[in-house]
Design brief:
six-stranded mixed sheet; 36% helix; alpha/beta; 6 strands; 9% strand; binds iron/sulfur cluster; Rossmann fold
Length: 252
């Protein structure tokens, strides 16, 4: 099989636009050490608008740590839904202190919960969680990614069936941006090992039975869950919904 790192060196001199890059890079990454892959991508797209997005889950924290190692002043975008857990705000503040050369930007909705209730009735997350996610996550993400060329995410194939076919590099038709998923082939166990070995901050709710963490209204602990196991059980437990729609039908 072709050595992916060789492809990376060839790609360094390529000045094609991010979108034109996709076909050549769609198979990239399976054999390349993740840090090397991230390093290459940040060099390759140094003259483009690049952002990392995170919801401060375990994968996002590991990704931010790897990106931070490259010592570039990148922007980390997060969408404060105004329904975060106190532990999530505490983690955000810890990440800001730990990585001072990264710029953490809240690009969440400006619609207050009170105004949402006035417009759509009480507890929209119970009456229409899809609309609630659209207002508080998807629409703000559209705005946040407007003008962005390369979007770095912590998505992994092992997270859910809807993410099973993602590639390291792919064109996102929904947001019209090159999506770079360097953790594509990672498992939660590998993420947890990275977090431990590198003493990366993580949400303390993971230790209290929360495999993934979203809004307070829609996230519950999962009995018997382990730190090294990923599951989307615990999210929107009274609904069929398992994703918030951020990632072309999938979500974070
Ligand atoms: S996760 Fe729940 S509270 Fe948060 S935006 Fe979606 S429906 Fe609303």
């Amino acid at each position: 099989m072709k050595d992916a790192s060789v492809s990376i060196e060839i790609g360094d001199g390529d000045r094609a636009s991010p979108r034109e890059t996709v076909p050549a890079l769609s198979g990239l990454g399976e054999l390349t050490p993740t840090q090397e892959l991230i390093s290459w991508a940040l060099r390759r797209f140094a003259n483009h608008e690049v952002v990392v997005t995170t919801s401060f889950g375990m994968e996002g924290c590991a990704l931010i740590d790897m990106v931070a190692r490259e010592q570039r002043p990148l922007t980390v975008v997060y969408l404060d839904t105004m329904f975060f857990f106190p532990e999530t705000y505490a983690l955000r503040d810890e990440m800001i202190r730990r990585y001072p050369h990264l710029r953490f930007e809240n690009r969440g909705t400006t619609l207050t919960p009170e105004e949402q209730e006035r417009r759509h009735g009480p507890q929209l997350w119970r009456t229409n969680p899809t609309l609630c996610c659209q207002i508080r996550k998807v629409d703000p993400m559209v705005t946040a990614l407007s003008g962005v060329d390369v979007w770095i995410t912590g998505l992994m194939r092992s997270q859910s069936a809807t993410r099973a076919n993602i590639n390291v590099m792919e064109w996102d038709w929904k947001y019209q941006v090159l999506k770079f998923n360097p953790l594509t082939h990672w498992s939660r166990e590998r993420v947890w090992t990275y977090i431990r070995e590198n003493r990366v901050p993580y949400n303390k709710l993971h230790e209290q039975g929360y495999p993934t963490i979203g809004c307070t209204h829609c996230t519950k602990p999962v009995e018997g869950s382990k730190l090294g196991e990923y599951t989307r059980a615990g999210r929107w437990v009274d609904f069929e919904k398992t994703e918030c729609g951020l990632h072309g039908g999938a979500g974070i």
